[in-house]
């Protein structure tokens, strides 16, 4: 086994390190330099992140940050918790980082994570558990065997579906629509006709930071209005959420890492999509639409279909709706995976009791609890990724 070395980095050095690794192996917008830079720029010292370069052999193989916070679950379970690439601050972590992991090569990530955890276990007694956040089931399957020898209990506290469109072999909008169910394809085409036929519905990408910021504010306004009308807070409630994403939009429109799309009819905008890009990977982070009293007009379905067709034409490999279940995701996707929220826990009596209580509660409400994987009993993420906004 290779010897791994960990080096703590200042925020300035971490920015440079993250940029270099991203050029080597871009994988997901949530592990990009753009995301990290927006977080530390907007949150400042409040983020409280400790950053590490993880090396073996000739050079750097991985990079990650650790947040730290004392938490108390159910008002009785205290925990000194570490957070991978998150701060532990509830307001800041409303960003809901998905597809988490270490930045760098996927090939060496399992052993790099093992090295990071070994360092924390051997030289930092001030923590009880480490939250890996949300990561895909496939990524966890690749990581788990490398961590099996560590004195840590794996606690899967929540799981959610994650729908996506695999774009391999799809050449554009017509190709994409042909692969949908007959009913979904009919609804989209009927809506396009209702807006004034295909030539009257346009998809545009903001061409500069100023335009992107203007469109983004319109998206936020419509998104918040739709959610507030249902008695919900919406994804952009709170000053930090808006400042973070405005920073990302303004600073990354030119690079293409953040893209604001406008869907317009013959006379006025129908809605906006806010997408994040890393390499050929596209994640739809949020949306805001103007709804009509006519149920046949579906700006969300039309907008996503046009955006997916554009992504296919541009040579992208995947359009990810991110985690959460809703009808529009099921209708538009051609694939689904699972996102897991995982904590790695040191041996603590209070954690054993907590897990026993959760198992007892599940057994009391689910007749198949003894046979199924752990259910959803953790905190739900605050960010509502377009659920209900795409009809």
How would you portray this structure in words?
This protein has 391 residues and is α+β, with helices and mostly antiparallel strands. It has 2 domains: 4-151, Aminopeptidase (3-Layer(aba) Sandwich); 164-335, Aminopeptidase, CATH 3.40.630.30. It has helices at 11-24, 33-43, 109-123, 137-147, 173-178, 182-194, 209-229, 239-252, 299-313, 327-332, 349-365, and strands spanning 4-9, 50-56, 59-73, 77-84, 103-104, 129-136, 153-166, 202-205, 258-264, 269-278, 281-289, 318-323, 335-345. Helix 2 crosses helix 8 (239-252), helix 6 (182-194) crosses helix 9 (299-313) and helix 7 (209-229) packs antiparallel against helix 8. The longest helix has 21 residues, at 209-229. 42% of the residues are buried.
